[in-house]
Amino acid sequence: MSHNSEQFITLTSRTMVLAQENIDTDQIIPARFLTTTSRKGLGRAAFYDWRYDEAGMARNSDPFAGKDPDEHQILVGGSNFGCGSSREHAPWALADFGFRAVVSTKIADIFKSNALKNGILPIEVSAETHADLIASPGTELIIDLERLEISRPGKWKQSFEIDPFGRRCLLDGVDPLGFLQSCEDDIVKFEARNT
Amino acid sequence: MSPKSLFDKVWDRHLVREETAEQPAVLYIDRHLVHEVTSPQAFSALKERGLKLRAPERTFATMDHSTPTVPLGPDGAPVFASEDTRAQVQTLQENCVAFGIELFGWDSPHRGVIHVMAPELGLTLPGMTIVCGDSHTATHGAFGALAFGIGTTEVSHVLATQCLLQSKPKSMRVTLKGRLNSGISAKDMALAVIAALGSGGGTGYVIEYAGEAVRALGMEERMTLCNMTIEAGARAGMIAPDDVTYAWLKGRNYAPKGDDWQKAVADWKTLKSDDNAAYDAEIMLEARLIAPMITFGPSPDQAMAVDSITPHPCGPVESKGLDYMRFTPGRPVMGEKVDVVFIGSCTNGRLSDLQAAARVLLGHRIHPGVRMLVVPGSEQVRREAESEGLHEIFEAAGAEWRLPGCSMCIAMNGDMAKPGELVVSTSNRNFEGRQGKGARTVLASPATAAASAVWGEVADPRPFTEAPRVA
Ligand code: SF4
Fold it and tell me: What is the pTM of this model?
């Protein structure tokens, strides 16, 4: 929740591309890995069934085979990324697997909210930009959270939207739970009015 | 005053602070439902900060996802599939004691799938805000509540402050005109709506279901419809409360009693959308055109009438989906050999669902090649079903009658299909691997699932459900 905000002013990194649409949270982390009571160490389970076969051996088709944790921090997914369950284990797993941004034309609501709370920027781009990203896996992108801009150097630059409060939490280190606690007077008044 | 929709009314009633350009609204939460999978890390967050629950009396817990559905062991204890699942359930029990939360646990006659248990106890009431770390919280919207799933960080926010930071979603009205044909269920209606909207078509919206066909649904059917709203990407589904709602709720454990009941009903009657209320989007469907529905791909919007043929894929996504399902474009799915049939879940694990399946099975045996699990949604559903003798119909037909839980809907508790097996399931998600690694899921209504169990292949339920014609 309270990630180091400064790192987030800009992110320069390469993409990993999963062109498939509707990548649901059961793909991002299969339910059998949800029996944990901790939020740590879930990177191993990220996209597990895409990476490993029934015997637990790496698949030839593993889309993350060449992933360098320091190099590839941006995940480009097909439309409706993160649909399905509300499991926050999905962004926990992605963050632990080294991702700090997800880019798609459409990102599912609950995933979007969960991702932002865990230092993963959910970025929605135009179909045109998306097509360029799908066609050029591994390309370097610059994401500027302050200016709300995503660019492919020398090619294009596009603005994006992010929940303004979530952005403040990342940039200024605002703690959402602390903020809610600071609303105590209003909460007490609300409860008095409604009981 | 400008006309308001049901959603506007419930939203406005819960504003602790209005939304501004910089800050989302602070929304008060009336009911918080908790289960073992998405709560442990939230309780840990509270412990790290030394926080207590703001309103333990608004918080209710049960265990359902990783709990076994096989009979208790000889020592009277549940037989867990793994140490992890046992530890997860135990962590919930410990947290409920430590934080003073009412838990419907092993010894409770009310334990069940959280979205089955809460409404049947009257914990779900019209006009409430209800959240749970679970996307199918949308179920409770059937009562005219604003109910939606949240992540674990937000679970900790609600535990600590009883509030959430929320930007107001857009609104959509989905109107179902006319009436469903006889033998067509709310599940078929839900799949038809999702197919029309697409799996991301509702993203950013709260949906209000309206129209004659929705009004004609019973409470359990309304829950089935609202339950699957999330499969179109929408946060919540809502149906304005009416006499059907009040009749269903009256006398339930946590429903208001006596004078309070009268007052509550008078208030609930104000919750319907005003004439001319504005919606950001509207769609309309003809209910009479809805047939029994099945899915053909690994996404809930890939749904079609049971007797139609799979579409020719218009892109690599659909073609990969059909490949995973091992279905051929332009061919029927009806007639495909079935390995497993699952009746249960928060979508279709209620008494009326079990009755619908039992009506099909009565006097039949399931096909010898099929394994069929019938998992009641709660202890209460189990008792009611057994008092009607439904379990005997299931067992006589060759199906397994299990203890309540999520079971094969999410395959966390050991109940799962083997790689490659075809499952006809009354649950809500057919994602790749959802019911076991490599398992292939066809979503359907209880009647369609039961008919498929009898034939041993994906089957049309209408020969079982339609009244015989008089010559
Ligand atoms: S029955 Fe399935 S969808 Fe419903 S709460 Fe359980 S796992 Fe989730």
Answer: 0.95
